Amino acid sequence: MSDSLAPRVPAQPASAAAAPDCASDCYHCGLPVAEGSHYAVRIDGIDRPMCCPGCEAVAGAIVAGGLDNFYRFREQSSERPEAAPAQRWQAYDLPQVQSEFVRDFSGTMSGVDDPQSLRVASLLVGGITCAACVWLIEKQLTAMTGVERVSVNASTHRAQIVFDPSRVEVSALFSALASIGYRPSPATAANNERMLQQERRAAMRRLGVAGLGTMQVMMFAIALYFGGSKGIDLQFEQFFRWVSLIVATPVVCYAALPFFGAAWRALRSGHLVMDVPVSLAIGLAYGASVYATVFDTGEVYFESVSMFTFFLLLGRFVEMRARHRAGLASGGLAQLLPLAALRQNADGEVESVPVAALAVGERILLRPGDTIPVDGEVVEGASGVDESILTGESALQQKRVGSPVFAGSVNGDSSLTVRITAAGSGTRLSAIEKLVEQAQLDKPAQAALADRIAGRFIAAVLIIAVAAFVFWWQQDPGRAFWVALSVLVVTCPCALSLATPAALAAATLRLQQLGLLVARGHVLETLPQVTRVIFDKTGTLTEGAPQLRSIILLREGVREETARDIAAALEAQNNHPLARAFRPWFGNRSATGLKAVTGRGVSGACAGIEYRLGVPEFVLALASADAAATPYAAPSEQGQWLMLGDQQGPVAWLGLGDEMRPSAPDTVSMLGAQGVATELLSGDQSAEVPRLATLSGIEEYRAGATPEEKLARLKALQKRDERVLMIGDGINDVPVLSGADVSVAMMSAADLAQSRADAILLKGDLRALPRAFALAGKCRTIIRQNLGWAILYNVLALPLAFMGLIPPWAAAIGMSLSSLIVVANALRLSRWQPAR
Q1: Who contacts 629 (Cβ-Cβ below 8 Å, separation ≥6)?
Q2: Please, are residues 241 and 107 in contact by the beta-carbon 8 Å criterion?
Q3: What would the 3-class secondary structure string for 728-767 be?
Q4: Domains of the chain: total
Q5: Per the database record, which ranges form the HMA domain (predicted)?
Q6: Which residues have a catalytic role annotated?
Q7: CA–CA–CA angle 397, 403, 406 (5° rounding)
Q8: Nearest Cα to 364, choosing from 449, 293, 422?
Q9: Predicted confidence band of residue 82 (pLDDT cuts 50, 70, 90)
Q10: In terms of Cα–Cα distance, which of 333, 358, 334, 355 is closest to 345?
Q11: pLDDT tens-digit series, residues 732-773
Q12: Do both 121 and 59 map to the same domain?
């Protein structure tokens, strides 16, 4: 535990401080202080009363840490802390427990010698009530030794903590949060789902209160409006006003509370958000109506306030549901997994166990209709499996012995026995979820621009509202306030702020269904600008399933089986797609000192003899000068040829064959029709490169390109003002993937390649690329339509409101309908279909 968490004595001990007589509420949580209580903490030079030892301890920890500004910034009382023994947090130091919410840090960190040693903990923090809570949590944790970075999202209550496990334990993070009165918990799928349910329930409660209040106030408003012409008794008129006040107060003070809170936070931080004019409109209308009721003068508009609040909440509720459906809330993918599975022991007996108890190497039984809880390999049976959640392909994929299966997919018509190869956070589904979370952290430039426009627009609206009030005060003082109110309401830039994120959310979801997982926020806005796509060959343009087709011996006395087994031993630990060709012979021989040289080959020792496998120059560099001087031309037969050699010279040529993906020609043709140039860059030096380029329709190609040469080619294209998309799957593609404007990695790619990619191709159908280009263009069109509509609506509505032709309740309906139109237009992208 860091020094910042060491217990410190407050400026004045609680036992020596007496609660001031004038204070009856706890300064920390706001609950009443019992008579005779002597719990207190000195804050800002004053002994503040506390209701219990828990609040006293939390407040003392905040003050001792130099964070007492928290009490100046907060907008409402904190929650009362729960008592929890210190041993409660020690369980989170166990690796088995951490596997669900702690992962390796994959980014860069300035000032850190070894960023690869860092970990990231994802926590849900209960008790956050405002931006001051976020400030307090980040300050408290950042001050801890070993914590490098803390990011807290006030809306999702999620904290991302980058820490050094050698300097601080995970239990210390939990303890630090608990010491200042918050409730930490791992950001697991179950906890995320619970938080989503809480958000939905809270929204429905507020919407229900606003709806009921609106209906009731409208009844009294009708009596006031229509009763006046019939000479309603003034006593009853005042009675109806007071009843309307009573009914409208919960609507304003409870249902509309999120608007006031967001507006207050924004103003305190020096920003203008859409909730500022909304809060002004609700607050001013309610305040003026209360004044008119109390002093029996003027008109009351409780029905307008209630109706305005109801329509606002209805619009935001629909937007929230759309956001949840679009999959922006984290934890949704993991909810697809079952809670239990049927584990099979060595005797064939089956027992039901929790999915969390499954381990790599165990076997499970999948019945027809079962959701697969782990990644694995079929060892018995044959069946069709629905992998649409991963690939977007609705057709069943036929699985037989040796076929891989993945968590989240659904078994079809027959039973399967599966050997587990990955469980929990190691599954492909978990990797996809992490990429989705990573994409959510990025703020696209289009969305940021819309936010900036909205902020300036709000300032202009406030100025126009003041001008409307001044103008109408001179013309008709009785209408001045309500005209200004209508201006504030009708021009609220909700639609403007929703225009971009709603479209990006829907398009991202649709891209995932089409087979392309977006891992960076800029992909959709950059794709329409791409002018060239560069393909890698092995595992990208080809199937990535090479097979050993022939062996040509170059040394007498060596058998084909010997050359094959030595090559397999050298490739046993390599993650390159070519290594898969030797998989059937892994284990026949063993090799030590294995080393892979990117783009050249592999080396290692078998039975004490040093061997190399790869391109001829790399292999011959190991041999004697005489052997290296002898030219060795690759066989003329079709295929990719690797040389095997030792210090005495070449041993054999091994010919590999890899079929081109059936979708490659269509993909190149579709990209060409969209005006996007294509190019093939491969490290392979064989005749396979020009052959595949010709078959696929790619005119520009280069064979034998090293990673450095690929990157140089990319930089040269970018200097010519080209925007380049690179797609690859090998470690040798990492430099060019990192440098491309948009990078795409195959789902079968090396982990390092995937971590550097902006998007992941979930299945082998390359046609997802041109479809992504088309969808990105459609998304840009939808965004422009949304922005155009939002601007047109305000241009048309503002003059009408300024002229007094739109009452406040109609302004609320118009503004809500404008937002709903924007969301509905954006959701069209979730149903977009590629042209045939």
Answers
A1: none
A2: no
A3: ECCHHHHHHHHHCCEEEEECCCCHHHHHHCCEEECCCCCC
A4: 7
A5: 119-185
A6: 536
A7: 70
A8: 422
A9: low
A10: 358
A11: 666 777 788 888 888 766 555 566 678 888 877 899 999 999
A12: no
